[in-house]
Amino acid sequence: MALGILRPGRGHASWAAWLLRGAAIAAPLLFTGTSSVMAKSPPPDTSRTGTSFASLEGWNKDAHHHALSAFMRFCERPKSLTKAWEASNLAAADVRRLCKIASDVDVNGPGKAQQFFETYFIPSRVDARGFVTGYYEPEVAASRTRSDTFSHPLYRKPPGLEAVTRSNRPKGWPGDISHGRRLNGKLTELPDRAAIMEGALDGENLELVWLADPVDAFFIHIQGSARLRLNDGGVMRVGYAGKTGHPYTGIGRLLVERGLGTPEDFTMSGLRQWLADNPHERDPLFMENRSFIFFREVTDTRPELGPVGGASLPLVAGRSLAVDTRFLSYGSLVYVTAAFSDPDRPSASFQRLMTADDTGSAIKGHARGDIFIGSGDRAGEIAGDIRHEAAFTILLPNPDAIRTPY
């Protein structure tokens, strides 16, 4: 999601950002993991100023060994780091060398991880005013089989689903629909949310899993992924697999436009309360958001790890950042400071080195980020309160230091 992912309320790009702005979920979204193709290299960015680590607020207090661990995930796919650092003229051999150096760092040695970053990277401050929100992975009850209790499905991707591109776009295709379904060799429009809710996909055996609450299902569509506690005692993770391609409409924004409340009223909890108080208006309101998401069971990551992000790697709570990949490539290191409480140090403000490994269509600009908080209700509560100005500093590799024998 950056699907992406989003949420003042609770969620990806902050619930307010998603629900009030009406941002569309796009693949790869904040937790998508559906594409092994990495984002194209971002365009050159000249709006940065060189700085020093000593000038970074809170730098010395960060848990650098956690940041190093999050970064090391990308050493399993060095090509992505080579792409991220093309502008630094870092060759593939340099990236492999840097990863070897990183793997040799004694993370238990006091200050060793911090010393690694200070030796092999150069900080560059993003001059534009930054902004961050938070997102998380919902966790709800579910069943692999339908029952009276579990009767609201999440659907698999239908066969023939494909993105509409310049090369395959049929004549007269609606400009605001990004995906279609190829049937009998012809690209056709998929049913939208209203049609699917009325049974347009019934009989195709696309039901992946069943939920007890249609509101949970709707919000999982917004987040793009979820951890499901199965009634047989197991755990299932679902992630984004595709979409109908219809435009996204934020239902919170619709309620505000109709004079039924303010943006502050429609946090996730506020919106859930409104839906509970107005059950007869729930489905008609849902149907006004034509966008509809399909899911897959995620089995390529361990249950204890985070959901898979746009870089096809498990997200790390508090260290994974969804970014605009036009400006930052996956694998980029970003030091983020913002005036909200650090989840692990409530008495301190958020000052952390993060790794760019997710994206979302609500994440726009080179100083815009969405912080992955974790899974479950508590993570949702924290994520929903994050909607703050921020300062971004990019850590660029130092080729001379990397090439120096150590």
UniProtKB/TrEMBL annotation:
Enzyme class (EC, first level): lyase
Lytic transglycosylase MltA domain mapped to chain residues: 139-296
SUPFAM superfamilies: Barwin-like endoglucanases (SSF50685)
A Pfam family of this chain: MltA
UniProt EC number: 4.2.2.n1
SMART domains: MltA
Stretches of the chain forming a coiled coil according to its record: none
Substrates-to-products reaction catalysed: Exolytic cleavage of the (1->4)-beta-glycosidic linkage between N-acetylmuramic acid (MurNAc) and N-acetylglucosamine (GlcNAc) residues in peptidoglycan, from either the reducing or the non-reducing ends of the peptidoglycan chains, with concomitant formation of a 1,6-anhydrobond in the MurNAc residue
InterPro entries, per the entry: 3D_dom, MltA, MltA_B, RlpA-like_sf
Keywords: Cell wall biogenesis/degradation, Lyase
Name of protein: peptidoglycan lytic exotransglycosylase
Organism this protein belongs to: Roseibium denhamense
